[in-house]
Automatic annotation (TrEMBL):
Entry-linked SUPFAM superfamilies: P-loop containing nucleoside triphosphate hydrolases
Domain of life, source organism: Eukaryota
InterPro entries for the chain: P-loop_NTPase
The name this protein goes by in its record: Uncharacterized protein LOC101733769
Species of the source: Xenopus tropicalis
Length: 284
Protein backbone atom coordinates (compact mmCIF):
# COMPACT_ATOMS: atom_id res chain seq x y z
CA UNK A 1 0.00 0.00 0.00
CA UNK A 2 1.20 3.47 -0.86
CA UNK A 3 -0.11 4.82 2.45
CA UNK A 4 -2.70 7.19 0.97
CA UNK A 5 -6.27 6.75 -0.21
CA UNK A 6 -6.87 6.35 -3.93
CA UNK A 7 -10.69 6.29 -4.17
CA UNK A 8 -10.80 5.78 -7.96
CA UNK A 9 -8.66 2.64 -7.58
CA UNK A 10 -10.99 1.36 -4.87
CA UNK A 11 -13.98 1.87 -7.13
CA UNK A 12 -12.22 0.10 -9.97
CA UNK A 13 -11.33 -2.84 -7.74
CA UNK A 14 -14.89 -3.01 -6.46
CA UNK A 15 -16.21 -3.16 -10.03
CA UNK A 16 -13.63 -5.75 -11.09
CA UNK A 17 -14.40 -8.00 -8.13
CA UNK A 18 -18.17 -7.60 -8.18
CA UNK A 19 -19.89 -10.97 -8.01
CA UNK A 20 -23.62 -11.69 -7.99
CA UNK A 21 -22.97 -14.35 -5.34
CA UNK A 22 -22.27 -11.54 -2.87
CA UNK A 23 -25.70 -9.92 -3.33
CA UNK A 24 -28.07 -9.87 -0.34
CA UNK A 25 -29.94 -13.07 -1.29
CA UNK A 26 -27.10 -14.64 -3.28
CA UNK A 27 -27.07 -14.87 -7.06
CA UNK A 28 -30.68 -16.16 -7.30
CA UNK A 29 -29.61 -18.09 -10.39
CA UNK A 30 -28.13 -15.13 -12.28
CA UNK A 31 -24.52 -15.36 -13.40
CA UNK A 32 -24.02 -12.25 -15.50
CA UNK A 33 -24.83 -8.54 -15.44
CA UNK A 34 -25.61 -7.58 -19.01
CA UNK A 35 -25.40 -3.89 -19.88
CA UNK A 36 -27.38 -3.46 -23.06
CA UNK A 37 -26.64 -0.25 -24.93
CA UNK A 38 -29.21 1.57 -27.05
CA UNK A 39 -29.38 4.90 -28.74
CA UNK A 40 -29.52 6.89 -31.93
CA UNK A 41 -26.87 6.30 -34.59
CA UNK A 42 -23.49 7.83 -33.89
CA UNK A 43 -24.20 8.90 -30.31
CA UNK A 44 -21.17 7.13 -28.83
CA UNK A 45 -22.26 3.58 -27.87
CA UNK A 46 -19.18 1.86 -29.27
CA UNK A 47 -16.93 4.61 -27.91
CA UNK A 48 -18.44 4.10 -24.44
CA UNK A 49 -17.46 0.42 -24.60
CA UNK A 50 -13.90 1.30 -25.61
CA UNK A 51 -13.78 3.84 -22.77
CA UNK A 52 -14.96 1.24 -20.22
CA UNK A 53 -12.34 -1.26 -21.37
CA UNK A 54 -9.62 1.41 -21.26
CA UNK A 55 -10.48 2.51 -17.73
CA UNK A 56 -11.03 -0.95 -16.26
CA UNK A 57 -8.04 -2.65 -17.88
CA UNK A 58 -5.78 0.32 -17.12
CA UNK A 59 -3.57 -0.41 -20.14
CA UNK A 60 -3.14 1.11 -23.60
CA UNK A 61 -6.17 2.58 -25.40
CA UNK A 62 -7.47 -0.01 -27.79
CA UNK A 63 -10.41 0.05 -30.19
CA UNK A 64 -12.47 -3.05 -29.38
CA UNK A 65 -15.80 -1.83 -30.76
CA UNK A 66 -15.46 -0.09 -34.12
CA UNK A 67 -16.42 3.57 -33.70
CA UNK A 68 -16.36 6.39 -36.24
CA UNK A 69 -18.16 9.50 -37.40
CA UNK A 70 -20.67 8.56 -40.10
CA UNK A 71 -24.17 9.38 -41.33
CA UNK A 72 -25.01 5.68 -41.43
CA UNK A 73 -24.89 3.13 -38.64
CA UNK A 74 -21.34 1.94 -38.06
CA UNK A 75 -22.33 -0.98 -35.82
CA UNK A 76 -24.68 -3.61 -37.28
CA UNK A 77 -24.27 -6.53 -34.91
CA UNK A 78 -25.08 -6.98 -31.29
CA UNK A 79 -21.67 -7.84 -29.96
CA UNK A 80 -20.93 -8.77 -26.34
CA UNK A 81 -17.72 -7.46 -24.73
CA UNK A 82 -16.87 -8.95 -21.32
CA UNK A 83 -15.66 -6.19 -18.95
CA UNK A 84 -15.10 -8.35 -15.83
CA UNK A 85 -15.89 -11.96 -14.82
CA UNK A 86 -19.45 -10.82 -14.07
CA UNK A 87 -20.15 -7.75 -16.20
CA UNK A 88 -20.61 -7.87 -19.96
CA UNK A 89 -21.45 -4.85 -22.11
CA UNK A 90 -23.38 -5.30 -25.34
CA UNK A 91 -22.96 -3.02 -28.33
CA UNK A 92 -25.95 -2.47 -30.53
CA UNK A 93 -26.98 -1.12 -33.87
CA UNK A 94 -27.94 2.56 -33.60
CA UNK A 95 -31.54 3.51 -34.32
CA UNK A 96 -32.57 6.18 -36.82
CA UNK A 97 -35.72 6.81 -34.79
CA UNK A 98 -37.35 5.13 -31.80
CA UNK A 99 -40.59 4.21 -33.55
CA UNK A 100 -42.42 0.90 -33.13
CA UNK A 101 -40.59 -0.59 -36.11
CA UNK A 102 -37.18 -0.42 -34.43
CA UNK A 103 -38.21 -0.61 -30.78
CA UNK A 104 -40.00 -3.97 -31.20
CA UNK A 105 -36.63 -5.57 -31.85
CA UNK A 106 -35.08 -3.81 -28.87
CA UNK A 107 -37.81 -4.94 -26.48
CA UNK A 108 -37.23 -8.51 -27.63
CA UNK A 109 -33.48 -8.06 -26.97
CA UNK A 110 -34.18 -6.58 -23.53
CA UNK A 111 -36.37 -9.49 -22.54
CA UNK A 112 -33.47 -11.83 -23.47
CA UNK A 113 -35.51 -13.35 -26.30
CA UNK A 114 -32.81 -12.76 -28.95
CA UNK A 115 -29.40 -14.45 -28.80
CA UNK A 116 -26.31 -12.22 -28.58
CA UNK A 117 -23.70 -11.72 -31.29
CA UNK A 118 -26.14 -11.64 -34.19
CA UNK A 119 -26.66 -9.08 -36.89
CA UNK A 120 -29.51 -6.72 -35.96
CA UNK A 121 -32.21 -6.50 -38.63
CA UNK A 122 -35.41 -4.56 -38.05
CA UNK A 123 -38.52 -6.36 -39.18
CA UNK A 124 -42.14 -5.30 -39.31
CA UNK A 125 -43.21 -8.82 -40.13
CA UNK A 126 -45.52 -10.09 -37.40
CA UNK A 127 -45.19 -13.82 -38.13
CA UNK A 128 -41.41 -13.58 -38.36
CA UNK A 129 -41.23 -11.87 -34.94
CA UNK A 130 -43.57 -14.40 -33.32
CA UNK A 131 -41.51 -17.26 -34.74
CA UNK A 132 -38.33 -15.79 -33.27
CA UNK A 133 -39.97 -15.53 -29.87
CA UNK A 134 -41.06 -19.15 -30.07
CA UNK A 135 -37.55 -20.23 -31.15
CA UNK A 136 -36.15 -18.61 -28.01
CA UNK A 137 -38.11 -21.12 -25.90
CA UNK A 138 -35.71 -23.84 -27.07
CA UNK A 139 -33.02 -22.42 -24.84
CA UNK A 140 -34.54 -19.78 -22.56
CA UNK A 141 -32.12 -17.40 -20.90
CA UNK A 142 -32.72 -16.96 -17.17
CA UNK A 143 -29.14 -16.22 -16.17
CA UNK A 144 -28.60 -12.66 -17.42
CA UNK A 145 -29.47 -9.73 -15.20
CA UNK A 146 -30.14 -7.06 -17.79
CA UNK A 147 -29.64 -3.34 -17.28
CA UNK A 148 -30.67 -1.10 -20.19
CA UNK A 149 -28.36 1.83 -20.94
CA UNK A 150 -29.56 4.64 -23.20
CA UNK A 151 -26.66 6.53 -24.78
CA UNK A 152 -27.39 10.08 -25.90
CA UNK A 153 -25.02 12.72 -27.24
CA UNK A 154 -25.71 16.25 -25.97
CA UNK A 155 -24.24 17.75 -29.14
CA UNK A 156 -27.62 18.35 -30.77
CA UNK A 157 -30.21 18.54 -28.00
CA UNK A 158 -33.53 16.68 -27.95
CA UNK A 159 -36.03 17.69 -30.64
CA UNK A 160 -39.77 17.62 -29.69
CA UNK A 161 -40.46 14.47 -31.73
CA UNK A 162 -37.48 12.72 -30.16
CA UNK A 163 -38.68 13.56 -26.65
CA UNK A 164 -42.03 11.88 -27.15
CA UNK A 165 -40.68 8.66 -28.64
CA UNK A 166 -37.80 8.53 -26.16
CA UNK A 167 -40.18 8.85 -23.20
CA UNK A 168 -42.30 5.99 -24.50
CA UNK A 169 -39.19 3.91 -25.11
CA UNK A 170 -37.89 4.54 -21.59
CA UNK A 171 -41.21 3.52 -20.03
CA UNK A 172 -41.28 0.32 -22.06
CA UNK A 173 -37.66 -0.48 -21.19
CA UNK A 174 -38.75 -0.54 -17.59
CA UNK A 175 -41.63 -2.86 -18.39
CA UNK A 176 -39.24 -5.24 -20.16
CA UNK A 177 -36.53 -5.34 -17.49
CA UNK A 178 -38.03 -4.06 -14.24
CA UNK A 179 -35.50 -1.22 -14.08
CA UNK A 180 -35.36 2.25 -15.57
CA UNK A 181 -32.64 2.57 -18.17
CA UNK A 182 -29.53 4.44 -17.05
CA UNK A 183 -28.94 7.38 -19.36
CA UNK A 184 -25.36 8.13 -20.39
CA UNK A 185 -24.95 11.58 -21.92
CA UNK A 186 -21.86 11.62 -24.15
CA UNK A 187 -19.93 14.53 -25.65
CA UNK A 188 -20.59 16.44 -22.44
CA UNK A 189 -18.17 19.22 -23.33
CA UNK A 190 -19.88 19.86 -26.69
CA UNK A 191 -23.39 20.84 -25.63
CA UNK A 192 -25.75 21.74 -22.82
CA UNK A 193 -25.61 18.59 -20.70
CA UNK A 194 -27.54 20.24 -17.87
CA UNK A 195 -30.49 20.84 -20.16
CA UNK A 196 -30.30 17.27 -21.52
CA UNK A 197 -30.07 15.88 -17.99
CA UNK A 198 -33.16 17.83 -16.98
CA UNK A 199 -35.14 16.53 -19.97
CA UNK A 200 -34.31 12.92 -19.11
CA UNK A 201 -35.06 13.38 -15.41
CA UNK A 202 -38.44 14.83 -16.36
CA UNK A 203 -39.09 11.68 -18.39
CA UNK A 204 -38.73 9.65 -15.19
CA UNK A 205 -35.16 8.45 -15.64
CA UNK A 206 -33.46 8.06 -12.27
CA UNK A 207 -29.79 8.06 -13.22
CA UNK A 208 -28.18 10.36 -15.74
CA UNK A 209 -24.40 10.06 -16.09
CA UNK A 210 -22.44 12.66 -18.03
CA UNK A 211 -19.26 11.54 -19.79
CA UNK A 212 -16.72 12.60 -22.34
CA UNK A 213 -15.74 9.38 -24.06
CA UNK A 214 -12.16 8.50 -24.81
CA UNK A 215 -11.82 8.31 -28.59
CA UNK A 216 -9.27 7.33 -31.21
CA UNK A 217 -8.40 11.02 -31.62
CA UNK A 218 -8.31 11.93 -27.94
CA UNK A 219 -7.53 9.29 -25.34
CA UNK A 220 -5.04 11.09 -23.13
CA UNK A 221 -5.98 9.93 -19.63
CA UNK A 222 -7.58 12.51 -17.39
CA UNK A 223 -8.70 11.96 -13.83
CA UNK A 224 -12.13 13.45 -14.54
CA UNK A 225 -12.86 11.21 -17.52
CA UNK A 226 -11.65 8.11 -15.69
CA UNK A 227 -13.88 8.98 -12.73
CA UNK A 228 -16.96 9.49 -14.91
CA UNK A 229 -16.63 6.10 -16.54
CA UNK A 230 -16.08 4.39 -13.18
CA UNK A 231 -19.06 6.29 -11.79
CA UNK A 232 -21.19 4.90 -14.62
CA UNK A 233 -20.22 1.29 -13.88
CA UNK A 234 -20.54 1.79 -10.14
CA UNK A 235 -24.05 3.22 -10.58
CA UNK A 236 -25.05 0.17 -12.58
CA UNK A 237 -23.89 -2.11 -9.78
CA UNK A 238 -25.75 -0.01 -7.19
CA UNK A 239 -28.92 -0.69 -9.13
CA UNK A 240 -28.13 -4.41 -9.37
CA UNK A 241 -27.48 -4.59 -5.62
CA UNK A 242 -30.76 -2.83 -4.89
CA UNK A 243 -32.82 -5.12 -7.13
CA UNK A 244 -31.11 -8.24 -5.81
CA UNK A 245 -32.19 -7.45 -2.26
CA UNK A 246 -35.61 -8.76 -3.28
CA UNK A 247 -36.65 -12.27 -4.23
CA UNK A 248 -36.71 -12.65 -8.02
CA UNK A 249 -38.77 -15.05 -10.06
CA UNK A 250 -37.13 -15.13 -13.50
CA UNK A 251 -39.63 -17.60 -14.97
CA UNK A 252 -42.63 -15.52 -13.98
CA UNK A 253 -40.92 -12.33 -15.15
CA UNK A 254 -40.15 -13.89 -18.52
CA UNK A 255 -43.81 -14.79 -19.01
CA UNK A 256 -44.92 -11.25 -18.11
CA UNK A 257 -42.40 -9.77 -20.55
CA UNK A 258 -43.47 -12.10 -23.28
CA UNK A 259 -47.09 -11.04 -22.78
CA UNK A 260 -46.08 -7.39 -23.02
CA UNK A 261 -44.09 -8.08 -26.18
CA UNK A 262 -46.85 -10.10 -27.86
CA UNK A 263 -49.30 -7.32 -27.10
CA UNK A 264 -46.90 -4.67 -28.43
CA UNK A 265 -46.33 -6.62 -31.67
CA UNK A 266 -50.04 -7.24 -32.10
CA UNK A 267 -50.92 -3.56 -31.66
CA UNK A 268 -48.16 -2.57 -34.04
CA UNK A 269 -49.56 -4.97 -36.64
CA UNK A 270 -53.12 -3.66 -36.20
CA UNK A 271 -51.99 -0.01 -36.51
CA UNK A 272 -49.99 -0.86 -39.62
CA UNK A 273 -52.95 -2.64 -41.26
CA UNK A 274 -55.24 0.30 -40.48
CA UNK A 275 -52.74 2.72 -41.98
CA UNK A 276 -52.44 0.55 -45.10
CA UNK A 277 -56.24 0.35 -45.50
CA UNK A 278 -56.74 4.08 -45.06
CA UNK A 279 -54.00 4.92 -47.58
CA UNK A 280 -55.66 2.48 -50.03
CA UNK A 281 -59.02 4.21 -49.44
CA UNK A 282 -57.45 7.55 -50.25
CA UNK A 283 -56.03 6.18 -53.51
CA UNK A 284 -59.36 4.62 -54.61
N1 LIG B 1 -15.48 14.22 -28.52
C1 LIG B 1 -16.22 13.13 -28.38
N2 LIG B 1 -16.42 12.33 -29.43
C2 LIG B 1 -17.18 11.23 -29.25
C3 LIG B 1 -17.78 10.90 -28.00
N3 LIG B 1 -18.48 9.75 -28.13
C4 LIG B 1 -18.31 9.37 -29.42
N4 LIG B 1 -17.54 10.25 -30.11
C5 LIG B 1 -17.20 10.22 -31.54
O1 LIG B 1 -18.43 10.16 -32.26
C6 LIG B 1 -18.34 9.29 -33.38
C7 LIG B 1 -19.43 8.20 -33.29
O2 LIG B 1 -19.17 7.40 -32.16
P1 LIG B 1 -19.57 5.84 -32.09
O3 LIG B 1 -19.04 5.35 -30.79
O4 LIG B 1 -19.16 5.13 -33.33
O5 LIG B 1 -21.16 5.93 -32.04
P2 LIG B 1 -22.22 4.72 -32.07
O6 LIG B 1 -23.35 5.13 -31.20
O7 LIG B 1 -21.54 3.45 -31.74
O8 LIG B 1 -22.65 4.73 -33.60
P3 LIG B 1 -23.46 3.58 -34.44
O9 LIG B 1 -22.82 2.28 -34.15
O10 LIG B 1 -23.30 4.03 -35.83
O11 LIG B 1 -24.87 3.68 -33.97
C8 LIG B 1 -16.91 8.74 -33.36
O12 LIG B 1 -16.16 9.52 -34.28
C9 LIG B 1 -16.44 8.96 -31.94
O13 LIG B 1 -15.04 9.15 -31.86
C10 LIG B 1 -17.55 11.80 -26.89
O14 LIG B 1 -18.04 11.62 -25.77
N5 LIG B 1 -16.77 12.88 -27.15
MG1 LIG C 1 -21.47 1.71 -32.79
Amino acid sequence: MAGYERPADHVRDYIRRFSLDNCALGSQGYNRVLLQLFGYMGHGKSSLINSCKYVLDDGEYHIYAKASASHKSVTYSRTAYPLTDTITIVDNRGCATFNAYETGEIYAQLGNFIPLNQRVEWTNNYIQMINRLEDSEMDPNFTDFTIPVFVYSVKKGLAEGEKKETKEFIDNCRKMTGVYPIVVLTNKTSGDFLQAEKEFLLMGVEKVIKVENYTREDHGRTQGRHKEILHFLYSVLEDVNFQMRYRKNPRKERIERKKFLLNFLHEREVTQRLEQTSSQDIRN
